[in-house]
Each structure stands twice: as C-alpha cells, then as structure tokens.
C-alpha cells in the first residue's frame, strides 16, 4: 500500500513540475460590485494549459447565490 501511495505522490510531483511538458497554470478572479439591487460578489477559479481552460465560478447577489 505504501508503494502505491509513494508512486502516486511521485507521479503527481513529476506532473506538477512540468517535466512531462508545460505545467497546468492555476487562475483565479473575484469581483465585488454595487448596483441598484445592492452589493454582489462573484468568484472564478480554474486551470489553464495551452488552449485548454477549465473554470468553475460562483456568484451571490440580491436574488441569492447561483
């Protein structure tokens, strides 16, 4: 079991350092705004590698969170 765990850790470290190619770049953005409906917030996190981007966003405003 320990060998499997160590193998996964080493594979993750190899992928993270970019030795097998360009590493995935993390991205994050936040927005805080104010309008006639009150204050709203939104956030977005993701990863980027070459032409591929994967993002997840969430926001909250007058009508709740979505």
From TrEMBL:
Upper classification of the source organism reads: Bacteria, Pseudomonadati, Pseudomonadota, Alphaproteobacteria, Rhodobacterales
What UniProt keywords apply to this chain's record, in alphabetical order?
Answer: Signal
What is the organism of origin for this protein? Shimia litoralis
Q: What is this protein called?
A: Argininosuccinate lyase
The signal peptide, as residue positions, is 1-18
